[in-house]
Fold:
Amino acid sequence: MIKEEKKFDIEEMDLPEGMTTDYLSDLFSKYTVNMPDECEIERVINSLSEYIPQKTKWYEKLYKNFKYFIERWNISLYSISHAYWIFTLCLYIFGFYIVYSNGVNPYITIMLISPLPFVLGILEVIKGREEGVLELEMSCRISNREMVFSKLTLAGIYNIILNTLLSIMLININENVDILKVTMVCLTPFTFVSAVSLYICSKTRGYYSCMACIFIWIAISFSISMSPKYINRFFSIDFFQYLLILISGVLLLIFNTKKFLKTNVLEKEVN
Amino acid sequence: MKLEIRNVTKKYGKFCAVKNFSYEFTEGVYGLLGPNGAGKTTIIRILADVLNPTDGSVMLNGEDIKDMDYRYRNLIGYLPQDFGVYKNFTAHRFLMYIAALKGLSKTESQKRIEELLEITNLKEYSNVKTGTFSGGMKRRLGIAQALLNDPKILIMDEPTAGLDPKERVRFRNLLSEISKDKIVILSTHIVSDIEYISKEIVLIKKGEILKTGSSESLTNEIKGKVWKVLTDENGLKTIEERFTVGNIFRNGNKIETRIISENRPDDSAEAEIPTMEDVFLYYFDELSE
Amino acid sequence: MEDEALIREILSGSKSAMELLVKKYYNIVFSYIYRYSGNYHLSYDLTQETFIKMIKAIRTFKISDGKFKSYILKIAVNTCKDYYKSNYYKNVGKNFEEFDDEKISGENVSDFFEYKEDRQKVKKAILNLPDFQREAILLKFYYDMKISEIADITNANESTVKSRIYQGLEKVRKEIEGGEKLDKRRKEI
Ligand SMILES: Nc1ncnc2c1ncn2[C@@H]1O[C@H](COP(=O)(O)OP(=O)(O)OP(=O)(O)O)[C@@H](O)[C@H]1O
Ligand SMILES: [Mg+2]
Structure:
């Protein structure tokens, strides 16, 4: 309880007749307050500490981010279906097999399958909405936004690993295969097709539009494979032009990932 | 613990689903009761932090849940009204996945999942794909997942939809067992689910609070407005035209009707003790007109 | 430590600076909110809310804007106002009028009762004031704010503040003296 002697400055104002400083001080000091105990103040301090901006060293940050992603990817592994891993792996084995035994053009093969794991990964990401689990996922501690991002990055990294492995194997079985050219025909479709698929999925939010992307890409690949002159023209551009294409592909991919995250999860609307 | 809805409004386009809604929850079971389209799910979603209100806020112990973000979601367990599962997951895997999203460690989750499968009577289906589950089994899986993180705030939208009477009783007992130190918020239009276990019932109509109170006080308030009238086929027609009619029992030619009416509908009418079901009819019947 | 230095430390991530700041201003904020609302339970929550709003906005606080005390009181004033605007309060809050849980260690029992009665009278008189008068009077007589500061905190101009205080005081006196007369009459009977 505090019952302070009230001191206040009344120079600057008029008071109703008969009210003196003493009178007022006596009057107001009667309305005492029981101060809460320490634990109430502790409670406030605890909840405030969440809002203190944290300064950490760069390597601590790095370690934290690393741990964070490992954790999130671990959870992503739970939700991505086994079928996804098996199917994509088979796709690459099949690709290698037809080049190896049937002599199919290695460039066409790797071009065709190089963006598929990621685009199929998008399907896994929007599965939650499709099967009505999204609302529940959104109410969990780890936000849906984090999960979508982690699943996308996981699918992206997985895709790049598969592409690298296939490229290495193709180079090993056939010394005519050029390392730069292989990189070109796998990275260009990977960035552009992924970016376009993300764009379309963020516009339509649909399972089927994502499937459509895959089929359109397959159709395009086949028509390209029918007329090798396109490929040859593509191969004739110089390194810097190629670098330009690649950079614009990567930028497009980043831009559309952001867009996808925004339209898919940020607005808390479940329909 | 105090969870407060403060002046929450939710608009879908021009349509106002929830209007300037304010309420306060403390430990105990609360039932949101209202007819279809009253706005129960909308409020529940806002409480579960899956829907942003157009206006207003939800505060937990004086802290806005938007500021608390994951700290708030860490405290809640939520069962949505339309609850889907990944069909090719087994029950166990689904629960492991949700547990991971709730930030539980693997060993923690294993133990908890065992317990919850037992409680919800799903133990033998632990390794069965959820795609083969019946509606009631899915609902029970939903109840299990909501309890994974031992939530301080449990929010369930029509938790008993699709449960058989035996499971319903089990669920009710479960709730009264665990609700001691929790805020439990249920929405339903099945009166018997909440009649005996809830500390307070909130009657909602067209996005606004119509009335709140314990089931005792709500039934007391309509004392003397519930009647039993004996009649026959011809009489029934006029009664249905003039009054809000509850249950109708046929017994040969005789028909016994339960009527909600401000005044004695008929000299032969006998006053009945009101139940929550009568309360529901009393407050929500005009809606169908 | 000066408030300015504390705030600088908080901005650079010091938790202990925040603790010091909270401990320094807790009583001021809490007592304002309690005196404004007359309800302990509510005051705990609104006090927490006030501090959270403060820390979220602390980046934008400039020393040149004035004293930290008036800054945080301004947040407290607005937090209370917002709460009482809420229609939850209109529906339910008013019925929650708590019974007074003031614990007083009076040596003399009759003194204690007299004191309690007086306190109750002043409390009631203040709580019965319209909120803008109550704000001004609390800020003036409990926190010794200057008229110009009160004007800033309550978003009004100085002459308005002065007249609010004047009228508020008259009302308080009326309520207390009226009550006393009533009491006397009661005792006579
Ligand atoms: N996404 C939406 N877009 C437009 N209107 C909506 C949307 N969701 C709900 N509504 C409308 O808001 C109102 C309240 O819906 P809500 O689902 O909250 O009702 P409810 O009380 O849960 O009903 P029920 O008992 O049928 O579950 C309804 O009229 C509904 O049509
Ligand atoms: Mg609903």
